[in-house]
Design a protein that fits this description.
The structure is a single chain. The chain contains three helices and no strands. By secondary structure, it is mainly alpha-helical. The longest helix is centred in the last third of the chain and has 26 residues.
């Protein structure tokens, strides 16, 4: 395999062409949209709901590494919703 100096060469496996498909870094500072939304959700809880929409919209099919962060954000959104409903119920009753 010959290549010129300074050029990039695709490193892959002939038997498994998808082996290097997830070698690129994730967006949002390398932690992925899901985990970034989870962390930012403590400042702005609407980010949890945004990530929940992405999770139920099967965004993680583009990159399976996003699934855990999106799921964590969906769980945080659920907990936040339950807490808000309890607080509103206590205040009104």
């Amino acid at each position: 395999m010959e290549h010129k100096k300074g050029e990039y060469v695709h490193i892959g496996d002939a038997e498994e062409p998808e082996l290097g498909i997830y070698d690129k870094p994730l967006p949002c500072f390398g932690c992925g949209i899901g985990w970034f939304s989870f962390l930012l959700g403590f400042v702005c809880p609407l980010m949890w709901y945004y990530a929940t929409i992405l999770y139920f919209g099967n965004y993680y099919h583009k990159d399976p590494r996003e699934r855990s962060g999106l799921a964590a954000s969906a769980i945080a959104a659920l907990i936040c919703t339950v807490v808000v409903i309890i607080v509103v119920a206590v205040i009104l009753l």
